[in-house]
Amino acid sequence: MGSILDPDWGTYPFVTGSTTLASAATGGLGIPPRAITRIIGVTKAYTTRVGGGPMPTEIKDDAHAEKALSEVAATTGRIRRGGWFDAEVVRFACQINGIDRLFLTKLDILSEFDKIKICTGYEFNGKRVHYHDLDSYQLDKVKPIYKTVQGWEKDIREIRKYKELPARARAYVETVEKLAGVKIGWVANGPEREAVIKKP
């Protein structure tokens, strides 16, 4: 989610120059607020971030996972740092954008892991905190609280129906959904348009 790059609600000063929230459609495109009837948020099945700035779930102690979840941006060629799914950030993004449904992408990338971590929240100075409690420099020092789930260790890229995904893959999706507090409407398990699976 690009919401944490928003100059007002993001990890200032590690942000972009214009708003990245759904409300930008009103000011930037001239769409009246009452004309917006549904907001879909797009998030990867793991977390990435380009450039500097705090990333609580960034993987630094596991070379295999770090390599598997880092990316190279297709247009700019910049390296995106990789980390486990951060439900704390996604919950916050859903709240400030008014998201109705989530689109979860790149589920197939997690297929090679036997165990997968999901960040459920943060600790700072021994206390449970939320993303919005801290500034960028404090966020860089939080301790992520993880829930570990079993991976499915099976290539899922050719699957086109949600019920045909491995049970552990469906469990992962439904855990993310519960932690985010917003229903997932679609799951993508590959880069092709045909790889978009509608979730019941």
What's the structural blueprint in terms of helices and strands?
Blueprint: H1 24-29, E1 40-44, E2 47-50, H2 63-69, E3 71-72, E4 79-83, E5 85-86, H3 87-97, E6 101-105, E7 115-124, E8 127-129, H4 136-139, E9 143-150, H5 167-180, E10 184-188, E11 196-198
Parallel strand pairs: 1-6, 5-7, 6-10
Antiparallel strand pairs: 2-4, 3-4, 7-8, 7-9, 10-11
Report on the structure:
It is a single chain. It contains 5 helices and 11 strands; from the N terminus they run αββαβββαβββαβαββ. It is of the alpha/beta class and 200 residues long. The chain has a 4-stranded mixed sheet, with helices on one face. Strands 5, 7, 8 and 9 form a 4-stranded mixed sheet that branches. Strand 7 and strand 8 form a beta hairpin. The radius of gyration is 17 Å and the shape is globular. The model has no long low-confidence stretch (mean pLDDT 95).
List keywords for this structure.
200 residues; alpha/beta; 5 helices; 11 strands; 26% strand; globular
Strand order of the largest sheet: 1-6-10-11
Query: Helix coverage percent of residues?
Result: 10-25%
- Sequence of secondary-structure elements: HEEHEEEHEEEHEHEE
- How does the major sheet shape up? 4 strands, mixed
Report, as a whole number of angstroms, the end-to-end distance: 23 Å
The outline comes out as globular
What are the low-pLDDT stretches, counting only 5+ consecutive residues below 50? none
Mean residue pLDDT? 95
Strand content: 25-35%
Q: Could you say which structural class the secondary elements and strand pairing correspond to?
A: alpha/beta
Q: Nearest-angstrom radius of gyration? A: 17 Å
What's the count of strands?
11
Helix count from the secondary structure assignment: 5
